[in-house]
Design brief:
Elements: E1 2-6, H1 13-27, E2 36-40, H2 46-52, E3 59-62, H3 79-84, E4 89-92, H4 95-100, H5 105-117, E5 121-126, H6 130-135, H7 138-151, E6 159-163, H8 177-193, E7 203-206, H9 214-218, E8 225-228, H10 235-242
Parallel strand pairs: 1-2, 1-8, 2-3, 3-4, 4-5, 5-6, 6-7, 7-8
Helix pairs in contact: 1-10, 5-7, 7-8
The structure holds phosphoenolpyruvate (PEP).
């Protein structure tokens, strides 16, 4: 089981040090065999996070990377720079990036290429809006979002999918367990049908995962892990989700 935490633009240096020590001391030793933790702090703290987690199994990731390799792109952080911090992962296609930064499939292909070339592993987020959910177009939406992986033509891309319904992110709402299961199976089938990609891609669920629903979500055979936003900012809640 994968436990990924997206801290978004929250916390400060003190928080990062505190929560990392909590996770190292109070969660990691109790994690079940075969489980992994991936923590995604704000990019400014990546180097500190990789330093603090050195010699542990905790892996560190960024929340985004630039679509460009380098150059005059003020404020952006390249995939290679992320890799230089010792981070191994990058989240791409998060709905907040799609929504607030107008990220589309074409841009995401470039981001995937740069991440791949820099040796980063990718957590690729997909998910439908509430309107798409109500209109019954979830599958078409996901198919379109997943087509980026195929179109990027990166045979050895190391990635997992995070299924995150946009309407479930930060709202306290989550799909029914059966809906999560059916959609995860749909995503896995889509990936298998895509010849150039690995057959056994892990699919995480994200969107209002909490200590109350984590156990049931994790029990679904199609769920390989969870991507946790709000609840990962509390080491107590994150512990209850992980253990
Ligand atoms: C997220 O934004 O990736 C997320 C899963 O958020 P939350 O857990 O707060 O819904």
């Amino acid at each position: 089981m994968i436990y990924a935490a997206n801290w978004k633009m929250n916390g400060d240096r003190e928080f990062v040090h505190y929560i990392l020590s909590q996770i190292k001391d109070n969660i990691l030793p109790f994690l079940s065999y075969g489980s992994d933790i991936i923590l995604c702090p704000p990019s400014i703290y990546l180097s500190e996070a990789t330093d603090i987690c050195k010699n542990t199994s905790i892996e560190i990731g960024a929340q985004d990377c630039s679509a460009h390799e380098n150059g005059a792109f003020t404020g952006e952080v390249s995939a290679q720079m992320i890799s230089d911090t010792g981070s191994e992962w990058v989240i791409l296609g998060h709905s907040e990036r799609r929504q607030y930064h107008a990220e589309n499939n074409i841009l995401l292909i470039d981001k995937l290429r740069n991440a791949h070339n820099a040796g980063l592993k990718v957590i690729f987020c997909v998910g439908e809006t509430h309107q798409q959910y109500n209109e019954g177009t979830t599958r078409e939406t996901l198919k379109d979002q997943l087509s980026v992986l195929d179109n990027a033509r990166l045979a050895n891309l190391n990635y997992m999918i995070a299924y995150e319904p946009v309407w479930a992110i930060g709202t306290g709402l989550a799909p029914e367990l059966e809906e999560i299961d059916v959609i995860h199976q749909f995503i896995k089938k889509q990936l298998i049908d895509t010849a150039i990609l690995p057959k056994k891609t892990r699919v995480l669920y994200g969107g209002s995962v909490s200590p109350n629903n984590a156990k049931d979500i994790k029990a679904l055979a199609s769920v390989d892990g969870v991507l946790v936003g709000g609840a990962s900012l509390s080491s107590d809640k994150f512990k209850q989700i992980c253990i």
